Amino acid sequence: MAERKSIESAPKDGSKVTILWKDGDGVVNESIGQYRDGGWWVYTDSDTQKKVDPTSWRPASGDDDDQ
User: Does the pTM exceed 0.85?
Assistant: First the structure.
């Protein structure tokens, strides 16, 4: 698994990456996210997207150099 990086270094070109973020209950989540429209977005289910404030990132699964 690739090492997590500071969210400030994440690509903001629309690439999908794995991000770590906390929900309103303080639960840490790991999701595929994408930066667009001035923020980070994740799918909460197949039809619903949510804007989140991630703390770190790594390349999305399958994009790791470690594989």
Answer: no
